């Protein structure tokens, strides 16, 4: 029996589920601080951030429909025989995207717990973050059917914190605070002269918009994918932008000052307008959401590590699966180990900068790879006319350059001189993976030649 193909609404629901969640709670107050606590600039950053991801996402449609492989860009790079770059892509995605996303969520969750306990001990915060990760990872490895059960629960509770804020805004919100004309117009004169405030803020929104590319991952399971996939991407981005804007306006209506909004990493505890029960209810819902998100990150992002082991970019032990849950436990332990290093040595804003830098670099490679496959691969299906495809390519490169600059600005603005070694080390390590890849394939080929001669 053939598997039933997914229609427009099913794929749209899948996209929204994958996109909207804990990333919004992690980044919203950070974006607000990046624009100098200006509400109007924050709203503008979220709108622009959503729009600029469209060209690069549209570019993923053609190869996704053409090849219908797990691993998407990683698999496309190997199809183009770019072995070194696929090695680089896989490791950068694992070390600087997946691991930072997990570490950010763990730190955000422990920050809310610490604020509820009225403690600001940084060592205790990081210890709780590590323990949370080990506990959730342990359930994935040792509990039978834990992934299926946890994902169902996660789907149910995912939208609750956002919906709760919107309801609170209807009851307690007002336009006297941050939504007043005085606050909205604050500092706009400087913004007209320079866009420097917006660039890092727009870059930071990337963390919350990751997930809108999900239709390209399941293109082989969609009815009429050539037409449905681009429609879902457009509608998905519009819906996500709308939800983020409504959520942002709701928060602005509840905050009495910029300081309250900037302290959003504590949940709603800093919001003086709200009664205690409302603050605690939101924080409990947010804790459940973060637990679900960390669980989902571990479940899905270990799949690339497993794929890399299959392609021999990692050693065979990473193909081992748990006898209890059938999860790739060695891949999960590697990802958890990387995340723990980030938790110990970094703050959330630093992790968002690393995430943005890595994603920008990976998207430049992805765009170049798609262009190559369209020109060279005989089985490539062209969905777009040539002129439209090259427009997407041009804007995708421009977006990557913008976010690359933004991530550099984030690193410089959030790192003190005593900690400047952290971003430098990250950048050097990203670059160093390339010669390691060349050395790896050189030694592999040398070994295979020696083996063939001996046989």
UniProtKB/TrEMBL annotation:
Please report the name of this protein according to its UniProt entry.
Answer: Amino acid permease
Entry GO MF terms: L-amino acid transmembrane transporter activity
Transmembrane segments annotated in the record for this chain: 39-61, 88-117, 123-143, 152-172, 192-211, 232-256, 276-300, 329-345, 351-375, 387-412, 424-443
- For the keyword Membrane, the answer is yes
| Annotated compartments | Membrane
One Pfam family of this chain: AA_permease_2
Q: Which organism is it from?
A: Spiroplasma cantharicola
- Name the InterPro entries for this protein: AA/rel_permease1, AminoAcid_Transporter
Tell me the keywords, alphabetical order.
Answer: Membrane, Transmembrane, Transmembrane helix
